[in-house]
Amino acid sequence: MKTILLAACLLLLAAEAQAVSRYDPTRMSCDRVQATIARQGAVILRYQSTRVPGLPLYNRYVRDERFCNAGEVRARAYVPSADTRSCAVYVCKRPDFDHFRRRFFPHRH
Asked: H or E element: which one contains 77?
């Protein structure tokens, strides 16, 4: 029974991952990239690195924190689009508490 339950959970996760649409932002205007994310809530954007030729880059971009996992926050990111090199979008990431601690509680020798 545990095996069946585990298999069902894995299939559900795989189906959820497949449900996220994938796009190439360099074939869309920045406004269209942002509108697509706003409409779908979360998408995967895949494009080629400008620094390392042939290296594909991708990430999951979201409309708001409701599309992030527990403990993650929405953070601004930038992707290339057909009409600009830096189209503002959002990703989910874990908060950097070490940065906060270093800023407000500097280490003293």
From this structure: strand 73-79
Q: Is 19 exposed, middle or buried (0-12, 13-18, 19+ CB in 10 A)?
A: exposed
**Which of 36, 44, 56, 39 minimizes the C-alpha distance to 17?**
44
Is 21 in contact with 43 (CB distance < 8 Å)? yes
Could you read off the pLDDT of 2-24 as tens digits, one per residue? 555 555 555 555 445 557 899 99
- Report how far apart, in Å, the C-alpha atoms of 5 and of each of 1, 11, 17, 47, 96 are: 6, 10, 19, 37, 35
Q: What are the structure tokens assigned to 93, written together?
A: 């990431």
User: Contact 27/81 with Cβ under 8 angstroms?
Assistant: no
**Which contiguous run of DSSP H or E holds residue 74?**
strand 73-79
Element (H, E) at 37: helix 30-40
d(Cα 21, Cα 84) in Å, to the nearest integer? 22
